[in-house]
Amino acid sequence: xxxxxxxxxxxxxxxxxxxxxxxxxxxxxxxxxxxxxxxxxxxxxxxxxxxxxxxxxxxxxxxxxxxxxxxxxxxxxxx
Length: 79
Fold this sequence. Notes:
With 79 residues, the protein is mainly alpha-helical. The chain has a domain at 27-78. Helix content is 70%, strand content 0%. It has helices at residues 14-23, 29-59, 65-78. The radius of gyration is 23 Å and the shape is elongated. The model has no long low-confidence stretch (mean pLDDT 93).
């Protein structure tokens, strides 16, 4: 069964449109564009989350390496 879809109206650059039309068969273009957008959205979400983590890190107090090592070893012993 086909995945539910929704028609959207947006512009893409002429060179991208020409390449899409020349490389991808007529019946496959929506699938190719949808998958490309899906991959780009995942990349965008990761970028946004990275920005949040970097903001949190910049506000957190520094931690010494030995303390991190000690905490990891203690955690491994509990497992």
